[in-house]
Each structure stands twice: as C-alpha cells, then as structure tokens.
Specification:
CATH superfamily of the largest domain: Nonribosomal peptide synthetase, condensation domain
Structural class: alpha+beta
Number of domains: 2
Helix content: 25-40%
Largest sheet: 8 strands, mixed
Shape: globular
Radius of gyration: 23 Å
CATH topology of the largest domain: Chloramphenicol Acetyltransferase
CATH architecture of the largest domain: 2-Layer Sandwich
Length: about 475
C-alpha cells in the first residue's frame, strides 16, 4: 500500500467578518438542489463540488498567512459562503451570518513534487462526506504547504451554496486575493437578494410562464422515457460509464458549424434521439441543466442558479436523417433554456396534477448536463477529414469509473473536456440501462455524430439498430 503523500493535518481557524446578516426563503435554484439532496440522502455527498487551485505554478510564492487571509476575504466577499440552511416549522430557508470562524486543514509535504498528490488526496477526503447543512459552513478548505509556501488550495463546496460556475468564480477570486490582495469590485447581487426578488410579484409571474412551457411539454411527450425495468439492478444500482474521445470533439465542431447550431445542441439532440429510439418513442423529453446566468447581475454571483429545463423533440418522419432534427432541436433548446427558472414547489404541484390527469407518474428521468463553462471555437485550419475522424475513433477510451447506491434519475449524461477530447459520462439506473446498454449509448453517440460529420448521417429510423450495433459480441440486454 502506497504511503500517503502528506503528514499529519494541522487545523487553523480563520476569522471572517461580513457586512450584513439576514434571513430569506431558499432561491429557486436552492430549492431545486435541496429537492435532489433529499431524494439522494444519505448519499448526497454526490453533489459536493470540489476544486484544486495550484498556487506554486507561477507568480510569486504565497505564504500560509497570505492564503488564510485570502480565505477570510473570500468568505466576506461572497455571502453564499456565510449562508446556512434554516428550517422554520418544517419550511427550509436560508440564514446569512455576518461573522464566524472557518476551519482550514493544512498539510505540509516534504517537497513540492508530492504536493499535487497531497492536494488530490485532500480533495477526495473532504468531498467524501455530506455537509451538515444547518450547522456547517458551505465551504471546506484546505492548504497544502511545503515549508511556508502554499502549493495548493483545496475547496469543497456544498451545492446549496454554489453550482459549477459559482465554483469557478470562487477559484478565480481566491487566486487574485492570494496573489494581489484584491479581486476587484464585489458581486452586484447576493443569494438573499435573489431569493427576495424571486418570491416577489415579478418573480412569481416569470415562474408561472416557465411552468406553462413545462405543462405543454409534458402533454406532448411520453410520461417517462424509461417506463419499464429491463434487468435486475446491479449492486450498487447506479453505474457510470465514460468515453473520452478526440474524434467526438472534432465531429461535434464539424456538425455544429455545418448546421449553424451550438455543439451543445448537437450533443443534446444526439442524446435525446438515441434515448427515444432505444425506448421505442417518437418524441424525446430530456431535462438539460440550465445555468440561468444570462443576466449581467448573475454572472459573478456565487449561488446555485442551475435548474432543469424541459427539451421536447419529435423524431420526425422515419426517412429523416439525424441532421434533419437539428433546426427544430435548436429552437426547442432555446425554449428549454428560457423556461428553466421557476419555483420547484410549483413544479411539484404541476407534476402531481399531471400524474392525476394521466394516471401515471410524469417525469422524463432523463438528464443532460453540459458542464463546460464555454464552448471553445472550432480549431482554425482545414476541416478534419472523414479518414482522420475514423482514425481518431481508434484512440477513444471507455471505462466504468464509478458506481453509486442512489441517484434521483435513470439517465444522467455529463459533458466535460479533457485536453482536446470530449469526456462524456453516463450515470444510469442498471434496472433500466444495464452496463452493456450504458456502454452502447456512449459509443452510439460517438458513431452518430462522427458519421454525421463525415457526411453519412444515419437515418432516424435506424438509431435503435445503431445502439444494438455498439454492444460487444455476446452481450445481452436482458
């Protein structure tokens, strides 16, 4: 067994002092993630967001005192980090504190060459347990040092306080605070203000309009994308499969450019079409995770703004090609993004009403999360040739990196980047998508988009066969 990269922990206590305190209801984004947390507990550490910030890679050295001072100013700058869950008569809300003490773990390593390993170990350790939402600050912080030089800062965030974009804002600000002592102007707004706005008259009107889109989508789509189990669930029940593909990254760029849509739309459409075809539906319903950061006041806001949208897409005529779906899909995606800010309690009431009306549960149980903060522009130069794409496919990597006991969905697709490749991870309920089907969906997505980029877009009525063709010899879904 390898020795740990670091020695004994040291615990420091960092005082912070903000400008105000207060109470408010949860924002819509907080309510949405709180619903998911309760459905996933006690495995809700799944929602923890971790980041590692290297501080010895460039610029002047940062001392332990400077790093802890930067953490104090980070807590003061972003009210989300001083906000905890408050429950009054069974109703969840939020409480902002104006002061407190943040525990910071410090691990010293004998040399900088072991620092990155120590930081990764700290990230895994701090991420592995659920937050105490009412008592614990929503930030766990650690520093890796070599002597008095800080090599890495490790942040683990409670999802009630931040989403992925908010985590990147915190990493950016901590770097500036540690190196320059300032991160510039403070955020324009804060979660407390957003909550009060959303629960006011204007916010309620906006939420009601969004739920009209959901109701129309529910009526147009199947009640769920995965209606019947097809296999005995594995233990653990939820498996994550992942492909890392340079070919897919290049093909997405090529298809998006050719059809004047975003790369995210290409991926969303491929996911939706394959799920619908695989389950025998003519209409797809997918819930993309929407960042809700189009307003200027929200771009630097550390909070959890993301909510589910509802993307509904008909598969068209049997003879249509996959690429024929893209114009309608682009418009459907825009409608989903616009209607992704609403009160989750009203959303629950809509779901209950639709369940009573249709006599069955109405929920897609099919999620799509493009976690890239921005889409990189397609590389300059001549387009990738079909031969180059097919050759790149040979380097695609696949694995099953994780399993979990409980996730509040049946199909969750996550898109990230690894260097010049796309990493696509599918977490699925093995009662509905056994491991061979998880693998088949990922390889079918790659083949579908690569073939489309090569001018050989598959027909929509052939997508179920495409899924079957991706299974290894001898694999059986049943």
């Amino acid at each position: 067994m390898a020795e740990p990269a670091a020695g004994t922990d040291i615990r420091l206590w960092v005082d912070f002092h903000g400008e105000r305190s207060g109470r408010a209801p949860l924002t819509w984004g907080q309510r949405a993630i709180w619903h998911a947390v309760r459905r996933t507990a006690p495995n809700d550490h799944y929602f923890n967001i971790g980041r590692v910030l290297p501080l010895a890679d460039r610029g002047r050295p940062v001392t332990t005192a400077e790093a802890t001072g930067a953490l104090a100013r980070l807590m003061e700058r972003h009210e989300a980090l001083r906000t905890r869950l408050l429950t009054v008569e069974g109703e969840p809300g939020q409480e902002l504190a104006d002061a407190g003490v943040l525990p910071v773990t410090v691990v010293d390593v004998p040399g900088p060459e072991r620092a990155a390993v120590a930081a990764d170990e700290l990230l895994a350790r701090l991420s592995a347990t659920r937050f105490d939402y009412a008592e614990e600050w929503p930030l766990r912080a650690a520093l890796v040092t070599s002597g008095d030089r800080v090599t890495h800062a490790v942040l683990v965030l409670c999802h009630l306080a931040a989403d992925g974009h908010g985590a990147e804002v915190l990493v950016r600000d901590l770097r500036l605070l540690a190196r320059r002592g300032t991160a510039g102007r403070p955020p324009v707004t804060a979660p407390l203000d957003l909550a009060r706005e959303q629960h006011g008259e204007r916010g309620l009107r906006r939420g009601a309009a969004a739920l009209e889109h959901w109701e129309a989508g529910y009526r147009a789509a199947p009640p769920t994308m995965f209606a019947e189990p097809v296999d005995e669930p594995r233990s653990p029940r939820f498996w994550t499969g992942r492909i890392v593909s340079t070919a897919l990254a290049r093909a997405v760029d090529a298809v998006a450019t050719a059809h004047r849509v975003s790369g995210s739309t290409v991926l969303l459409t491929a996911s939706a079409a394959l799920v619908a075809a695989g389950e025998g539906h003519r209409t797809a319903a997918v819930m993309p995770i929407v960042g809700n950061r189009t307003a200027a006041a929200h771009r630097d806001l550390v909070s959890t703004l993301s909510q589910d949208g509802l993307f509904v897409l008909g598969l068209g005529e049997p003879g249509h090609l996959f690429t024929d779906l893209l114009p309608d899909a682009y418009r459907a995606a825009l409608r989903a993004y616009v209607a992704a800010a609403y009160d989750p309690q009203e959303w629950d009431r809509l779901g209950a009403r639709m369940r009573e009306e249709r006599g069955t549960e109405v929920h897609p149980y099919c999620c799509f999360n493009d976690m890239r903060l921005v889409e990189r522009p397609a590389p300059a130069g001549p387009p990738t040739t079909p031969q180059e794409l097919r050759e790149a496919r040979r380097r695609t990597r696949f694995d099953f990196p994780a399993t979990q006991d409980r996730v509040a969905c049946r199909y969750c697709l996550h898109i990230t980047e690894e260097d010049d490749a796309l990493a696509v991870a599918l977490t699925a309920d093995t009662a509905y998508l056994p491991p061979d089907s998880i693998r088949a969906h990922l390889y079918a997505m790659e083949e579908l988009i690569v073939a489309s980029a090569c001018g050989e877009a598959p027909r929509v009525d052939g997508l179920a066969r495409l899924l079957g063709a991706q299974r290894l010899p001898g694999e059986d879904r049943s």
